[in-house]
Amino acid sequence: MREGPLIVIAAGGTGGHMFPAQALAEAMLQRGWRVKLSTDARGARYTGGFPHSTRIETISSATFARGGFLTKVIVPFRLAAGILASTWKMLIERPAIVVGFGGYPTIPAMAGAYLLRRPRMIHEQNGVLGKVNTGFASRVNAVACGVWPTELPDGAEGVHVGNPVRKAVLERAGAPYIPPGDYPMSVLVMGGSQGARILSDVVPAALANLPPRIRGNIRVAHQAREEDGQRVADYYAEQGIDAEVKPFFQNVPSRMSEAQLVISRAGASSIADITVIGRPSILIPFAAATGDHQTANARGLVQAGGAILIPEKALDAEALTAQIEMVFSNPTAATKMANAAMGAGRPDATDRLVDMVLSLSQEID
After folding, report:
1. E strand intervals along the chain
2. N or C: which end of the chain has fewer CB within 10 A?
3. Segment 204-235, tens digit of pLDDT
4. Which DSSP string corresponds to 201-242?
5. Rounded to whole angstroms, how far apart are CA atoms 141 and 113?
6. How far is the C-alpha of 326 from the C-alpha of 141, rounded, in Å?
């Protein structure tokens, strides 16, 4: 039996990079391709969700963003070692295409593909290219964009494909929205690992400040960092608000589909989930995000009327209460937001990305 063509997927060690990489791996395996994931030791910790038939290759890589002086001194040598190893393996295996999803662990594979002139493309999840994707944007054959518009460097042209979402989200795509009313209403609060503290500081107080007619009906699912969880849970209990507080909810898609409102950071994967399922949201972009990319992520959804944006510097309990009350007091407007969010979604993002991969691998040899 003839083996299928080989795709090398290069992805860094964060969920934002690995979730869309996993979606592409699943889709290409279903089409009979062989899939190799190229990452570093940090990225390898996030590979548990990849199909078992994915070949995981750990390549030497490094970043200047972490570690002390001596660690940073050896970064170029570790990168060089990774590039040499990756290039040698590609010379032998001759992959049909190499796809990078950003992060320093993608450098060896993308550099090897460039040196050997193999078909290559990148997928950028955020509205502003990360440092590594910026470096390769003019050295690849195509740039796939997760959100639109995406700020691209001169000479690079992007194609809006969307951010692939996992199967559990697709199963809830376009789930009917129940507008706010005089009955139990759900609020989902998602902060992300780096930006969760400020939401834990502000959101509970904002919900507690709501008029009794609204506050008495709300049920809260709040993702909070482990070190903040108990105080957040205690505060909700003191205020008489029905709340479940956890570091992570395994069933986010089902909770989101049942929610009347989502309060969240503006990470690319979060926005992809919100738009595919179609829910009103209040977005607070993480101010320390590189290149303010979370504000860029939110821009299209806000302009479409599907979300309300509050800059982190303007976030306080009073301002957030006003926005929450506005959503919950106007079911017609809330429904319009849900529909606008769904209209901005790309549930077929994986298929669009696969089409680009197949087309590019056939056009260039």
Report:
1. 6-10, 34-39, 55-58, 97-100, 120-124, 142-145, 158-160, 185-190, 218-223, 242-246, 261-264, 281-283, 307-309
2. N
3. 999 999 999 999 999 999 999 999 999 999 99
4. HHHHHHHHTS-HHHHTTEEEEEE--HHHHHHHHHHHHHTT-E
5. 11
6. 46
Work out the number of other CB atoms within 10 angstroms of the CB of residue 294. 29
Question: Coil, strand or helix: which one is 294?
Answer: helix
Is the bond preceding 51 in cis, omega lying within 30 degrees of 0?
no
Rounded to a whole number of angstroms, the CA Rg of the chain reads 21
Which position has the token pair 């939110």? 298
DSSP state string for 237-267: HHTT-EEEEES--TTHHHHHHH-SEEEE---
**109-137 CB burial, b ≥16 within 10 A, e <16:** bbbbbbebebbbbbbbbbbbbbebbbebb
Lowest mean pLDDT among 15-19, 23-27, 347-351: 15-19
pLDDT at 322: 98
- Burial of 317 from C-beta contacts in 10 A (0-12 / 13-18 / 19+): middle
Which of 208, 240, 242, 243 shows the shortest CA–CA distance to 222? Answer: 243
Q: How many distinct helices (H) and strands (E) make up the chain? A: 16, 13
Predicted confidence at residue 17, as pLDDT, reads 85
Count of alpha carbons within 13 Å of 167, Cβ hemisphere only? 7
